[in-house]
Specification:
The structure is a single chain. The chain is an alpha+beta fold. It has 18 helices and eight strands. The chain has helices spanning 2-48, 52-65, 83-98, 207-219, 276-306, 314-347, 358-380, 383-386, 390-401, 403-428, 438-449, 455-461, 465-501, 510-524, 533-537, 541-549, 555-575, 589-624; strands at 117-118, 122-134, 187-188, 193-194, 199-202, 227-238, 243-252, 260-268. Strands 1, 2, 5, 6, 7 and 8 form a six-stranded antiparallel β-sheet that branches. A two-stranded antiparallel sheet has the order 3-4. The longest helix is centred in the N-terminal third of the chain and has 47 residues, at 2-48. The protein is extended.
Length: 625
């Protein structure tokens, strides 16, 4: 019976050992597989991004945004503030930027009737389009005493206030409202959200005809008091780098008067498979789909095996989020490419019409954003595998232990933070751009914490409340709350370090397994001499005891333990001397820290003695039976 019990204990220990080995090897296989997936994803994402997109956007923005109007060096598209400045820009930088009909020595390079070539390299696709949206008169309520002074009133733009009636000369499309026949999305501007359609006209391929058109529109007051926004849209293609550049210049005319300008430059790669490198990226895309299928199958098996316990792990939630993002990326990719296949030929069919590439560029940008978020979380998932490392395990243990304290602190922090944000918005919102909206106030306060602030603007807006707001915010948020946050992290990390110092650390060391596999591989490749058994057995009893005592500790820990042994002897003399006084002596913080470390050292030695006693008892039991 006793022999059977001993066999059962030995069999159980072996079973647990082999189970641990299998778990380690499975984790290593998952890590290797995931690294291959991550490398493939990085090649895929960086292969989609063309390094020339930034330079193409920069060149075009410099041409259309920074070029000054004739005879006025201070006025460009960014600085337009009146309708007069707007027409100067249309007849000056816009006209000159769109029509490049000759080389620097006035030599004709191509047939302009076909298409213009901006900077001689970028083909203007079709013709540019200009459209405006208006609101009706008497769309706002006027206080009765002022009705005799105000005969016309144009409210801000909404779809309910939009003017759909013809105006002006009423004989061309620019004077008649046209509904949109494309699937482009609405535009979100500074002063409103603008839908498609409006009063539209397209430019000519002739520079002189376009200039005459601008003059006629200006003389006949195409822009009225009801105008709320004007869009200038055109698209370019650069065959040298295989990039489309979709440009939108926006001039908003808010109800307050003046003009707010904004712009969008989207350089996208719509023709994906042109070169041999593009086909290599296509093979990476197929590999990505295979990995996605494999990972999805693995997670479904885990969910079936663990059921509701599966959702208790944070890493499983991260896995599900990553799979969801991958499926979204694949869906966006299929949708974008199908739309490009259906619309690209149609858009390029007529060179006399405006080709609306904005829709394709918009969804391509969204696809790139989804891919960017996906690869971000893909890198975060690596922490799942390296958390078995001692340092990373300490980090994860620290964060998990202090999570409740951080949540409580976050509630207190954001109560004070949002209170200051609302105060700043109400006091400085009408004077300081950083506090013009509540959202701007929130981000402005984050910048204050990082040291980026405009104290002069705050003080000028309110010379009493401005300094009070700034000083109290810095004191409570920066000096008090942020230091409380650091104290929570620091104290928890000290507790975790103390637990690890007395041996309370995970036994699952992935790094040791990787190191062992590495040495085995070197021995098989004959790049490292195998360790002989005789060398292992030729050890003195003292060396074996020393090796046994130091097992599980690295050189730094051994050196630290020897220093603490000397320190402990000195501490015993100091606190256990027969000459200690009987009266009470207060303990300083430094003495308390010494006593705490002494207690940790004692617990470590007790743990060591306990393990040795267990070994002796097992040996005695084996001899007895």
């Amino acid at each position: 019976m006793a022999e059977a019990s001993r066999w059962h204990r030995g069999g159980t220990s072996k079973h647990l050992y082999y189970r641990k080995e299998i778990e380690i090897r499975t984790t290593l296989q998952e890590l290797l597989l995931y690294f291959i997936f991550l490398i493939n994803l990085c090649i895929l994402t960086f292969g989609m991004v063309n390094p020339h997109t930034y330079y193409l956007n920069k060149v075009m923005s410099s041409l259309f945004l920074d070029t000054s109007v004739p005879n006025d060096e201070r006025t460009n598209f960014k600085s337009i503030r009146s309708i007069t400045d707007f027409w100067k820009f249309m007849e000056g930088p816009l006209l000159e930027g769109l029509y490049w009909d000759s080389w620097y020595n006035n030599q004709k390079l191509y047939n302009l009737n076909n298409s213009s070539r901006i900077y001689y390299e970028n083909i203007l696709l079709g013709v540019p389009r200009v459209r405006q949206l208006k609101v009706r008169n008497n769309t706002c309520k006027i206080y009765s005493p002022f009705k005799s002074l105000v005969s016309e009133c144009y409210d801000k733009y909404t779809s309910e206030n939009e003017d759909l009636s013809d105006f002006g000369l009423k004989h061309d499309t620019e004077w008649k409202y046209s509904t949109s026949n494309t699937s482009s999305l609405w535009h979100w501007g500074f002063a409103g959200v603008y839908r498609n359609g409006g009063y539209i006209f397209t430019l000519s391929k002739s520079k002189s005809e376009t200039k005459t058109k601008f003059t006629d529109l200006q003389l006949n007051s195409w822009i009225t008091r009801g105008t709320r926004v004007v869009f200038i849209d055109f698209s370019l293609y650069n065959a040298n780098v295989n990039l489309f550049c979709i440009i939108r210049l926006v001039a908003e005319f808010p109800a307050t008067g003046g003009i707010l300008t904004s712009w969008q430059f989207y350089s996208v790669k719509l023709l994906r498979y042109v070169s041999y490198y593009d086909y290599f990226i296509a093979s990476c895309e197929i590999t990505f789909c295979i990995f996605l299928f494999v990972f999805t199958t693995q997670e479904l098996k885990k969910m079936k095996e663990f059921k509701f316990a599966y959702f208790k792990s944070v890493w499983n939630w991260l896995e599900l989020l990553l799979l969801l993002l991958c499926f979204m990326a694949v869906s966006f990719y299929i949708y974008c490419n199908s739309q490009i296949f259906l619309l690209l030929g149609q858009l390029l069919k007529s060179t006399e019409k405006y080709p609306d590439f904005y829709f394709l560029a918009y969804w391509s940008i969204y696809y790139n954003n989804i891919i960017a978020i996906t690869i971000f979380f893909a890198w975060i998932k690596i922490f799942k595998f390296i958390s078995f490392n001692k340092t990373m395990s300490q980090l994860s243990s620290t964060l998990s232990r202090c999570m409740k304290d951080i949540v409580g602190f976050a509630i207190m922090f954001f109560i004070i933070f949002f209170a200051y944000a609302q105060l700043g918005f109400l006091v400085f919102g009408s004077q300081v751009d950083d506090f013009s909206t509540f959202q701007n106030s929130v981000f402005a306060q984050f910048r204050i914490v990082l040291g980026d602030f405009n104290f002069a603007g705050i003080q000028q807006a309110n010379w009493i409340l401005g300094p009070i707001y700034f000083i109290t915010f810095i004191f409570f948020v920066f000096f008090v709350l942020l230091n409380m946050f650091l104290a929570i992290i620091n104290d928890t990390y000290s507790e975790v370090k103390a637990d690890y110092a007395i041996g309370r650390k995970p036994d699952f060391e992935l790094g040791k397994m990787i190191k062992k596999s590495y040495h085995n591989a070197l021995e098989k490749l004959k790049l490292r001499k195998p360790q002989k058994d005789e060398d292992k057995n030729i050890r003195t009893t003292g060396d074996l005891a020393e090796q046994t005592r130091r097992e599980g500790f690295d050189e730094n820990e051994i050196e630290k333990a020897e220093q603490m042994k000397k320190w402990k002897e000195r501490l015993e003399k100091e606190y256990y001397s027969s000459e200690m006084k009987e009266d009470y002596q207060p303990v300083t913080q430094q003495e308390f820290r010494k006593l705490f470390l002494y207690a940790v050292e004692l617990e470590k030695e007790l743990h060591y003695i306990s393990s040795k006693l267990n070994q002796v008892m097992r040996k005695l039991s084996a001899i007895q039976y």
